[in-house]
Amino acid sequence: AQSVTQLDSHVSVSEGTPVLLRCNYSSSYSPSLFWYVQHPNKGLQLLLKYTSAATLVKGINGFEAEFKKSETSFHLTKPSAHMSDAAEYFCVVSDPPFGNEKLTFGTGTRLTIIP
Amino acid sequence: KAGVTQTPRYLIKTRGQQVTLSCSPISGHRSVSWYQQTPGQGLQFLFEYFSETQRNKGNFPGRFSGRQFSNSRSEMNVSTLELGDSALYLCASSLGTDYNEQFFGPGTRLTVL
Q1: C or N terminus of chain A, fewer CB within 10 Å?
Q2: B106–A42 C-beta distance less than 8 A
Q3: What confidence score (pLDDT) does residue A44 get?
Q4: How much is the pLDDT for A43?
Q5: Closest approach of chain A CAs to the CA of B88, in angstroms?
Q6: Which chain B residues have a beta carbon less than 8 Å from that of A43?
């Protein structure tokens, strides 16, 4: 079975400083990995996805993630945090035989931006 | 293009009752997936429907059921509600083929008293 572990439940950074949200995965297959963001009282929005093409994936709003098979990691980064980045972030893996319609979510990382 | 819509947005029920939630996917999408989000268990996959057939299923009891109509709209039903069913229920739609992205709705907040 596929699983993801988000290593930090809460991350606080100052506005304008880099963001690092950590995620490790476990998969019997070549995984499809995603990062989703959830703002308060809003639905989930896809930030980026990895599907075995380039290992460095660029997403929306300046976010990117690097797939490292040797470390089984898929960490999310952003060079400079903005106040609007404050939200809950989920690392997600899909179950390849089941396409992308059956997603397994990590426990989430709440990102706080300090003015 | 309109996004995924869910109705109602908020719902309050009492234990033992049943509830039906509705999800309208993005036009042209044939797959609808349902997820439950709680503070304790996080986001968990319930089931997925594609072309009116349940294609994937999570580990939830039989009290949780769903269906999909010919226009791809989907409903989720929970019977004999328990306090632990209080959650945000999210649905997501996708084309359902070739590992396409899922688009999520805003969710239905269910409170069981």
Answers
A1: C
A2: yes
A3: 92
A4: 83
A5: 10
A6: 4, 90, 104-107
Q: What integer pLDDT is reported at residue A98 of this predicted model?
A: 57
Residues B75-105 pLDDT 10s: 999 999 999 999 999 999 998 776 678 899 9
Q: How far apart are CA A103 and CA B46, in angstroms?
A: 10
Q: List, as one string, the DSSP characters of B2-57.
A: ---EEE-SEEEE-TT--EEEEEEPPTT--EEEEEEEETTTEEEEEEEEETTEEEEE
Q: Please determine, for residue B74, whether its predicted confidence score (pLDDT) is greater than 60.
A: yes
Check whether B60 has a pLDDT greater than 70: yes
Question: What is the tens place of the pLDDT at every residue in A63-82?
Answer: 999 999 899 999 999 999 99
Partner B, chain A 23-62, Cβ-Cβ below 8 Å: 32, 36, 41-46, 49, 51
Task: Report the amino acid identity of residue B81.
Answer: L
Q: Which residues contact A75 (CB under 8 A, 6 or more apart)?
A: A20, A21, A22, A23, A65, A66
A95 vs A84: CA distance, rounded Å = 31
CB B93 within 8 A of CB B29: yes
